[in-house]
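Tutorial, part two.
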Amino acid sequence: MRLLILSSRSEEAHKRTLAAVAEEFSALGGECAYYDPSAVFDLPGMAQHPDAKVLAGLEEQIDAVRPDRILCADQMSMEAASAIRPKLSVPCYALFTDYACLSFVSRLSLDGYFIPHADLKPLFVEAGLPESRIFVTGVPISRRFDRRLDKATARNRLVIPPKRKIYLLLFGGMNRSIIEGICDEFLAQEKDDFAAYLPVRRNSDLRDDLKKKYCLDPHIHVIAYTEQQNVLMDAADVILTRPFGTQSTETSAAGVPMVHVMILPGRERLNAEFFAKRGCSVTADGVNDAIRKAMALARDSARSDKMTACQREQVVFGGARTVARLVHDGTAK
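Running the prediction step on this input gives:
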């Protein structure tokens, strides 16, 4: 069975979600192909709304791949697939990775919709989607998060002293000045023994610049993205992250107190509000507030434990397996 995954988003976190679904779908004996509907533009990923050129390119790709199932994972893909849905002879599904129901949802017409949480279902129904086609699956994340390590074991594996305060900074998409501001503020405010780990994409100018600036500082560690990032998350006392759906779900799966930082209007604000309202995170208004709240969580074990308990109770896990099974079996129709 062949699954065609459609997405025009390029964030690392979003790629991890798609890889998690593909991994589980492959475990069921299927195979996956990928296509970016925005690839027909000179600047792929920039446009959101599909035009005739996008639709023609998508139809051509479907004819070439001949999939048995189609999974759309961003707005452009969902709208494009909805536009050509009458021409398709295979089931076509939508995967939502934000803890929100955005305005474009009312324009969709697909066979099934996979959403992160049951509390969102009334919003999708209100937007006009048939309730029978909405499935609460959670946001797909890698099965590596099923194998949590206790903090002591994770730190031993990474050779991190057991009493050192560890902050993990997940800042994909931020510009250099903001990242440097946060790192510099940590150096100014945190007086205890601490280390801040900053994963940055390999072979990037940003990583080179940050490594050059902090190469002699024992507290700031600029590292490459790694498949062992879940181990680093297990070792952390606090994670500071943009409020992306995937990263917030991964942090919750790791059971680490979370501070949402540099929140943009729209889906990021809605994600942050969803987690904060349920006690799964705190939101920060600016750099100083982010550092202050991160330090407070690192020093308050009772509050941190309460937050991670809320994460376990409120966030839906197992999304990759659930989505893969529903798509593979064709039961989400």
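The chain has a mean pLDDT of 92. In part three we will examine how such features are distributed along the chain.
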